[in-house]
Hints:
Elements: H1 4-23, H2 30-36, H3 41-45, H4 51-75, H5 81-95, H6 105-113, H7 119-144, H8 154-174, H9 180-195
Helix pairs in contact: 1-4, 1-6, 4-5, 4-7, 5-7, 5-8, 7-8, 8-9
Amino acid sequence: MVTKGERTRAEIVDQGARMARVEGLNGVSIGQLAKELSMSKSGLFAHFGSKEALQLAILEHTAAQFVDEVVRPALSQPRGEPRLRAAFERWLAWGVAEEARGGCLFVAVAAELDDRPGPVRDRFVESQRDWLDTLAQIVAAGQRDGRFRTDVDPEQAAFELHGILLATHQAFRLFRDPAAHARARIAFDRLVTSLAHS
């Protein structure tokens, strides 16, 4: 049974994650978060003990959501193009959905954390490496099933797909390009064509 304290902590982390998508992790202050949740600063602080612990909780929460909404559903698809396409489309829905204010938290905090050593950066890097490994494993599984060429480097394919997703995020959220999703799908189709047997 979930305790009241656990429910409160979950609400804090969920709201913190929503704020971080727009403000970045450093932009999520204890005071602002307490105000948003109609809590006292001391009451909110008691759940985490430090801003770093709150940031780590936000990353853990978001990584778990990402696995539930993107990774697991994609991995349930047949190997090869269907699985890779599901990962691509689910990331688009996750990171660049029109209704998702702020876009992908991971994109939002990448520049913020890239040169800031410590546990928060370490956890963030781990989550991003897990994602790239997942994409590479999807390609490798397609190769084992004979659906993709065996001379393709799965890590290179993952790198290229990740690049398409990051470019789409910027085109859609920063440039407000209405053609961002269409361009992303053209780029994805070209990548899949390069993976397939000629």
